[in-house]
Amino acid sequence: MYYIGYDIGSSSVKAALVEAATGKKIIVLNEPQNEMEIVSLQSDWAEQDPEVWWEHICTATKRAIREANIDASKIQGVGISYQMHGLVVVGEDGSSLRNSIIWCDSRAVEIGNKAFAELGEDKCMTHLLNSPGNFTASKLKWVKENEPEIYKKVYKYMLPGDYISYKLTGDITTTKNGLSEGMLWDYKENKVADWLLEYYGIETSMTPAIVENFSNQGVTNEKGSQESGLPVGIPIVYRAGDQPNNALSLNVLNPGEVAATGGTSGVFYAVTDVTIGNSTRVNNFVHVNFEEKNPRIGKLLNINGAGIQYRWLRNNMGDETYESMNHKAAKIAIGSEGLVVIPFGNGAERMFNNKNIGTHFLNLNLNIHSNSHLFRAALEGIAFSFVYGMECLKDDNAAIGVIRAGNDNLFRSEIFSNTVASLIGHEIEIYNTTGAVGAARAVGLTDGDFEKFGSNISKNDHVMTFLPLQNSEPYQEAYQKWKKELELILTNK
Questions:
Q1: Which residues make Cβ contacts (< 8 Å) with residue 218, sequence separation at least 6?
Q2: pLDDT along the chain (493 residues), means of 10
Q3: 209-210 and 428-431 as β-strands: parallel, antiparallel, unpaired?
Q4: Cβ pair 31, 16 in contact under 8 A
Q5: pLDDT (0 to 100) of residue 372
Q6: CA quadruple 155, 161, 167, 170: dihedral positive or negative?
Q7: Cis omega (within 30 of 0) on the bond before 132?
Q8: Of 294, 392, 407, 459, which has the maximum CB count within 10 A?
Q9: How far is the first Cα of the chain from the last one, in angstroms, to the nearest whole number?
Q10: What is the 3-state secondary structure (H, E, C) of 138-167?
Q11: Neighbours of 408 (CB within 10 A)
Q12: b or e along 368-381 (b: 16 or more beta carbons within 10 Å of the residue's beta carbon)?
């Protein structure tokens, strides 16, 4: 017997099949082979057609069944991970009315800022644990203000994962954790934040019915089965945004556990039981195992300028590979002989209160520094940005016990991982897993046995552990120099 999991990203859709009994990976693949298009009609806009996600889900499902050479009738459940904060709006017939406004679209920033000011910081931080910001609710308000003809036809709003669940089942539903990603969950009242919708002039009836995670959220219908290749009648059991799902995939479920991601952007996602937010630099979301009597909140800190910095260097340095860059960087001393890279060239950074400070190469000495120094300084600069982000998390009441990360580009670098571990003073455990695999495995959590679930991940996926180096003084010295340069830039912005 098998479970299937999906991870709907903005670049591709991934599908994974795992054995139901053991969680063992059978196959992982992605569609399309090239990256999906992101439509940007104006600067800072980002949209995708949700029907394209569905087409890739169907293609990936059929490929996975065929290439794994399994009997589709033995697939017993579906788990869905998806890009967070997106908005999908549908009419009464369930058809999408416009492209999805996705996570990296910032058109609704001012709408959220105005709401935060008018509703009041105390109201927002005690009930939403966040500013309404540039999240799903504010994006829906933008549609209301700017596309009234489309808005008049809206029957329900959804997040991306809700739409895929609807396409499989015909049922329009959402989850608490999904609503929290859109700034639509009131933690204090433990219900939908209807007061925010009413402030925006949005009909509260547009909120879909809420289903619980790790339960039957609806079963595949004839149409969903015919298009996807899945059997009729199998349940969707789980859905979550990509960062909460990444945390689940890494067995980050309890207070003190932190999931780290080191891709194009960087993310720390720390689980806590404290239902208080005191910083707009950190986002707070309902975690996948949240219960009213046993709250689990995910504190998310995003760093836009992370791996994209290292990729930019690779793309502009001739024939370098990440491996050759890492090899050259390893020959340079800690601190890169004074060269400093400030790696924030990928838009506004929330941890700097939405300032866009750009990338800076500082103290470049033309007589000393080579491309090897640039590689080392870039890795250190990205690592230092993670350390700075961890300080922001701790300022927002996050306790740090253990950090777990996927085996992706940045964490493959010993320089990067040793620098972060030594400065934070915590082990970093590296796991070989993906969001689609985690979503598939989550289907088996209907039994509520999170301990068994976590031990299987530790047994099957653990790759290595980076320990804090005993002599961290050179790292501390280099970090303080980097931080001093950063604060000078922030002061002048």
A1: 165, 168, 169, 170, 171, 173, 211, 235, 236
A2: 96 95 92 89 91 97 97 97 96 97 90 96 92 94 98 98 98 96 93 98 98 96 97 97 94 94 89 79 90 89 89 91 94 97 88 87 97 96 95 87 85 90 92 93 92 86 90 95 96 82
A3: unpaired
A4: no
A5: 97
A6: negative
A7: no
A8: 392
A9: 57
A10: HHHHHHHHHCHHHHCCCCEEECHHHHHHHH
A11: 16
A12: ebeebbbbbbbbbb
pLDDT score recorded for residue 428: 93
What CA–CA distance (Å, rounded) separates 356 from 186?
30
Beta-sheet pairing, 191-192 with 156-158: unpaired
Confidence (pLDDT) at 395: 86
Q: What is the pLDDT of residue 355?
A: 82
> Minimal CA–CA distance to 423: which of 375, 480, 488?
480
Within a 10 A sphere around the Cβ of 238, how many other Cβ atoms? 32
What gap in Å lies between CA 423 and CA 416, rounded to an integer? 11
> How far is the CA of 2 from the CAs of 33, 82, 165, in angstroms?
25, 21, 18
Picking from 229, 192, 200, 175, the residue whose alpha carbon sits closest to that of residue 114 is 200
Residue type, 420: V
Residue 214, both tokens? 């790790």
C-beta atoms surrounding 310 within 10 Å = 26
**What integer pLDDT is reported at residue 397 of this predicted model?**
82
pLDDT for the residue 274: 80
pLDDT of 404: 94
pLDDT computed for residue 264 by the predictor: 81
> How far from chain centre, in Å, is Cα 320?
29
Closest CA relative to residue 485, chosen from 415, 381, 387, 393: 381
Check: CB of residue 383 under 8 Å from CB of residue 400: no
pLDDT at residue 292, as a whole number:
82
Taking the C-alpha atoms of residue 120 and residue 110, their distance in angstroms, rounded to an integer, is 15
Within 13 Å and on the Cβ side, how many CA atoms surround 454? 13
Residues 427 and 233 sit within 8 Å (Cβ to Cβ): no
